[in-house]
Write a structure and sequence with these properties.
Order of helices and strands of chain B: EEHHEEHHEH
Structural class of chain A: alpha+beta
Distance between the termini of chain B: 45 Å
Shape of chain B: globular
Number of helices of chain A: 14
Strand order of the largest sheet of chain A: 9-11-12-16-13-14-15
Number of strands of chain A: 17
Oligomer: heterodimer
């Protein structure tokens, strides 16, 4: 008779526990293999990679990670307005490095060479770092991300980094601007990110509208530094423009993550007011590209596409993506229109109207005013002298002398970013001298009726 | 025939900025405006508070766009929806009504 090996009760229990342990390990291996993007913490699903970092990374070559530390040196010019390809490429490389999140314990940011900067480039860089930091915190890692760095040598740039840069975003209070410094600064910084929370239309619209109202107050505080205020028309126009831009960011991008920032430093002899609005998700051209060929909007713009193909206007410097982006800015064009009876596609023109009115005020040096839209691989520079000639009401903007959509846009207005450089979303960057239109003087009289 | 009046007060929707197409559409649905448009015995009183900064075209057309297209002319729409707002807001709303009724062709026929 075959001897049957029998375990006692204690051994049985230990055996069962070991079996359970090995099964759990096998299950965990299976989960890592087939569901790599999800991790359970406290029974809640938490992405193991930040969606922002993932879409920014885009197969870009990362910075090196040495001994669990990334060291990045911000270039001398780090500006979306002045050098968009370089700035976006830099942020993409950082995002690519952050994909290896488990191996990163420290980030060292050397700002010492930074001279030319803008709000948008800095804000997007900070978003990557704060996403990484948040992700590590959500994972309940014992050690949080360590952030160190070197301040810029330029005093004005250092003040910027402290007031609205990485110092603020990492909440490093010991390096925050001192009170007397902060009194001459106006800073606005709001972000809506619904990537980690369920969509709630009411909460989302409430946050958006409250943010816009607060931004109007912020703008008035900036103008008050030079004894000016927005007129009723100015409040209306700025609110309308922001409402359309943020609404577009929520409806068209496929994910909800937008940021609105404002910055004014009156320490400077000539204070420049900056506004940055950006969102992550589908680019403008992608929302049109993805439409079915028999979609109303695709049919609406087909003739324009065909005209450019027939004339052989496409090249390295002007491609279909750029064309979709320009077309999407026209009045009555929206990926959400389904027939002539739908009434979408008015938003971009609100933006242009607002800046037409600023330009026509003649209250500042126009050559110092910049506005740009970057979406995907397309960079559109708004030259106000061009915009001002477009007439009222504004229905078409073709970015060429003839203002003709059948003709290729002028390269000084519409450019392709460098190959491989693409922003997953849309950035609107504005920079203009403080003294602007839509003002009242100290007696409350409106200027120019704008 | 006695006309019934229905009120839409923007104070009920937050403010002082009214934006977002989904918000406008959601309010339209909650107020059953598709049915109201077809009811000739109802006039709608639309009140926009004086402290409103702006009403965006997306919000306005989300809320009233189908009504504008139903009535086909600005006058008919405004006869049905009697809007009370400051001049500066009305200026924008008149523009939006114009956009909704305009020819949508991108290229001239």
């Amino acid at each position: 008779m075959k001897k049957v090996f029998q375990l006692d009760k204690k051994s049985n229990k230990r055996f069962a526990q070991q079996k359970h342990y090995h099964e759990q390990k096998r299950y965990a291996r299976w989960r890592r293999k087939f569901r790599p993007s999800i991790h359970m913490i406290n029974n809640k699903h938490v992405p193991t990679i930040s969606p922002i970092i993932k879409i920014l990374a885009n197969n870009t070559k990362p910075f090196d990670i040495k001994k669990n530390k990334i060291t990045i040196t911000i270039p001398t010019s780090f500006s979306i307005l002045d050098n968009p390809s370089q700035a976006i490429s830099f942020v993409q490389r950082l995002a690519a490095s952050c994909l290896d999140e488990k191996n990163i314990k420290e980030i060292y940011i050397d700002h010492s060479k930074l001279v030319t900067f803008d709000l948008s480039a800095n804000a997007i860089l900070d978003t990557v770092i704060t996403e990484l930091k948040s992700l590590k915190k959500r994972r309940n890692r014992r050690k949080a991300l360590i952030c160190r760095g070197k301040f810029p040598k330029n005093e004005n740039v250092e003040r910027f980094i402290k007031a609205i840069g990485i110092i603020k975003h990492l909440d490093i209070s010991k390096h925050a601007p001192k009170r007397e410094e902060a009194d001459k600064l106006e800073v606005f910084d709001e972000r809506l990110s619904m990537l980690h929370s369920p969509e709630n239309i009411a909460a989302k619209s409430s946050k958006r509208d409250r943010t816009i109202a607060s931004f109007i107050e912020h703008t008035n505080k900036c103008l008050a530094k030079v004894n000016k205020q927005l007129t009723l028309t100015g409040k209306r126009n700025l609110s309308t423009y922001l409402g359309e831009v943020l609404g577009n960011a929520e409806e068209h991008a496929g994910m909800i993550d937008w940021t609105l920032q404002g910055y004014l430093d009156t320490h400077l002899d000539e204070p420049i007011y900056e506004i940055s609005i950006f969102n992550f998700g589908k680019s403008i051209s992608k929302t049109l590209e993805e439409l079915d060929s028999n979609h109303y909007t695709k049919i609406q713009i087909k003739e324009y596409i065909e005209a450019h193909k027939k004339k052989k206007l496409f090249s390295d410097a002007w491609n279909l993506e750029n064309l979709y982006t320009v077309v999407a800015l026209q009045r009555n064009v929206s990926s959400k229109n389904t027939s002539e009876l739908t009434t979408r596609g008015q938003g971009t023109m609100e933006l242009l109207k607002f800046f037409q009115s600023i330009y026509s005020s003649n209250l500042f040096e126009n050559h110092k005013t910049n506005m740009a839209i970057i979406s995907g691989g397309t960079y559109i520079n708004f030259d106000f002298s061009h915009v001002s000639k477009l007439g009222n009401p504004l229905n078409t903007i073709a970015f060429n002398e003839q203002n003709d959509l059948y003709c290729r846009p002028d390269e000084k207005y519409v450019k392709n970013l460098k190959e491989g450089v693409s922003f997953p979303g849309t950035i609107i960057a504005l920079r203009f001298p403080l003294i602007t239109s839509q003002l009242v003087d100290e007696n409350g009289n409106e200027n120019n009726g704008n | 025939m006695a006309m019934k009046t229905m009120e839409i007060n923007f104070n009920d929707f937050g403010g002082p900025v009214y934006s977002g197409r989904p918000s406008g559409e959601s309010i339209r649905e909650s107020k059953n405006l598709d049915l109201i448009d077809k009811d000739n015995e109802v006039i709608v009183d639309v009140k926009i508070p004086d402290n409103a900064f702006a009403v965006t075209s997306s919000f306005f057309l989300g809320l009233f766009g189908p009504s504008i297209m139903h009535f086909k002319t600005k006058e008919a729409f405004l006869a049905k929806y009697q809007i009370h707002a400051r001049d500066i807001i009305m200026e924008s709303l008149n523009e939006y009504i114009g956009f909704a009724l305009a020819n949508k062709q991108l290229f001239p026929v």
